[in-house]
Amino acid sequence: MTLVVALVPIVAFGVLLSLVTVPYVSLGPGPTFNTLGEVDGKQVVDIKSTDGTGGSIVHPTSGHLNMTTVSQRDGLTLGEALALWMSGRDQLVPRDLVYPPDKSKDEIDKANTNEFKSSEDNAEYAALSFLKYPKAVTVESVTDPGPSAGKLQDGDAIDMVNNVAVPDMAAFQAIVKATKPGEQMVIDYRRKNQPAGTVTITLGSNPDRPHGFLGIGVLDAPWAPFDIEFNLANIGGPSAGLMFSLAVVDKLTTGDLNGGKFVAGTGTISADGAVGPIGGITHKMMAAQDAGATVFLVPADNCDEALTARDDRLQLVKVDTLTAAVDALHTISAGGEPPRC
Known about the structure:
The chain has helices at 2-19, 78-87, 95-98, 105-130, 169-177, 241-251, 281-291, 303-307, 322-333; strands at 24-34, 38-39, 42-43, 45-48, 64-73, 91-94, 135-142, 157-161, 164-165, 184-190, 197-202, 204-206, 209-213, 216-222, 227-230, 262-265, 268-269, 275-276, 295-299, 315-319.
């Protein structure tokens, strides 16, 4: 009887550990991907371009420019939460901080996916701007169904409308606002990896505006005559932007940006090349160290937090723009001292 009585609380505690879930999410080191390499047989950053004679303008690269991630685990049991906390590698945070109660998990996942897609676009624009590709009125989206569906495509550069040059978005919008529904608009455009063309579009109507409806979204962006594809699935958030931009720059210039070092890093990037802070910097540093990195690019605003987990095996390089990141890597390659956290 004594033994049975003694076992009851032990069994009860074991049930609690294995069945009861806790309102926490664990954050820890996640997968890291070499933006110069391949995933599932595809280049992580794939530039589809030729020099006009069948030769590629993409230069060979080697080594590592790794993007880093944070792993998340939800639906933890009490036992799993205790084990992760005791490991010292994972952090437990209240679930509401990761999944706000006013939004569903699907809504949050969709927002993260949209942020990742936006980071890919910004990474492309930042890299092309750094490489001095000129800006053009660029089609960002085509409404389908809509007047332009099947005639214009995402990524097209609009050069002329009704035989009038449109050097920027303001000039383009001024022409569109002077139209009426039912009118025809003749657009001269350039398309990536294809000949330039001309298309005639009959404008539709939209209750939100009195002028003709073209059914496209445009922006002023640096334009190149080739496609850049980013092939990473199931990765959310905007923090891969900096490393994607560096991979594009590396592939379109001679030499290796990493200078033979195993470089990893993180950071959001804007279309004009500004590097922004991210979450989970210490977890990403740990993931980079586990992968073998010796240099880690840190957004300037994350430096204080990064120093709390500093390890002499990892050189922490402070960056606030794409240009600063490229300059820092060139400095390291030349044996110099880059800006540090």
